[in-house]
Amino acid sequence: MNNLLVLPLLIPAFTAVILIFLKERINLQRIISAISVFVNIAVAIIIVYQVNTNGIQTLYMGGWLPPYGIVFVADMFAALLVLTTAVVGAACLFFSFASIGEQRERFYYYTFFHFLLTGVFGSFLTGDLFNLFVCFEVLLVASYAMIVLGGTRVQLRETLKYILVNVISSSLFVAAIAYLYAATGTLNMAHLAVRVAEAGQGGVMNVIAVLLLLVFSLKAGLLLFFWLPDSYSAPPLAVRALFGALLTKVGLYAITRTFSLIFVHDPGLTHSLIGWMAGATMILGAVGALAYNDLSRIFNYNIVISVGFIAFGISVATQDSLNGVVFYLMHDMIAKALLFFLGGMIIAASGTEQLRQMGGLIRRYPWTGWMFFILTLALVGVPPLSGFAGKVMMVRSGFGEQHVALALIALASSFVVLYSLIKVFQEVFWGGERSEEEVHPLRYKAMMAPAAVLFVLIILMGVGAETVNGLVAQAGAVLADPAEYINAVYINAVMKE
User: Which residue spans traverse the membrane (predicted)?
Assistant: First the structure.
């Protein structure tokens, strides 16, 4: 057992509780928050190292072995996402220092920030479906508060919509868990994989599988993304970056884990359904990205396109495509945070979110402009940037496994991403200046610092793709053949007992 696995949850949770008592001491809140995120990055690096060196790590809470107790599991897939979340979370925190404003900081912004990270880390590390539900609820409750913090009319309206959608999906999640427990007698993921294989995936098992897919799709924005473009446009800029980088990825992680470990015996139903949902999501996301001249909505529909692209890789379900899913998830978490950072700087500089009211910013903010252009190339998948390796693996597998239609849709969606973001680049940075708004120099530098860190990372991930792929291949191998996961979490524990 490895007690280190609970630290990514305990550190932000403990930090959040401490910050409740420091409401009026903003600078101290910032210092404690910064220490917390840096410690979590260090812990995440150690976990990745341990998984790489010693294999899958487990922690049985209270010493209770499956199927009775709560288990935390770090395979390479979970470990890499925990590390990426820790880095992105730190960047979002420092962007918050420059952009969120003292009014929100005094009303427990950093408390909610750390509770949200607690839920995200817990979702990646849990080995139990009910605990996954609990972690979902922790991050959702924190996200409700972060959307509404500020109390504008738009925020209140979108918060109600966001809460309603997630209450419905959470209710369905509880129902699916209840049915699954009634059918198998367990909620431990590794044990579920054994029980479903023994019972055969048909009839009621397929109904439960589709219900879980519906739940996770609502949370990921896969096909059922009607709530996402407006809800993600309502909160402050730093919150948009945090949501765009992390929240949909938790739903995609749940889909990947569930349909590579538990429900793998009837891919003609489950994976085909994921595939066609992915295709529809990419098409509809592309329509939205082309239709709007509002910066936030263009970015939000690009989130939708990437959700569909990743789901396409999940549906192909070869080791190569699953390697691509892991690589692209890491890339997209970093790239989407950077996209919203740069978008926030653009909005602060121009004083508007409407493209037609922007222009000429390249003269005052050349670094922002050229970072945005290179990020666009990374999101499209131009080598040697970070988006290339993951996209190549997924598209190559799609063509190789006769998912030609979906692979073509995925390629076409990349051209839509290119067009939509180049349109933003052209409208925002070229032409004559249409606004006299000015970002305060110190604020601009503070906003640029976390953006620059993420910008360097997307370049390093691309240039060092061979090194990163060594870790990614370990994650993909366990997803493609979950026997190692089942043995590490359940079979070995039962034998020890």
Answer: 6-22, 31-49, 69-95, 107-124, 130-150, 162-183, 203-228, 237-256, 268-292, 299-317, 337-355, 367-385, 405-425, 446-465
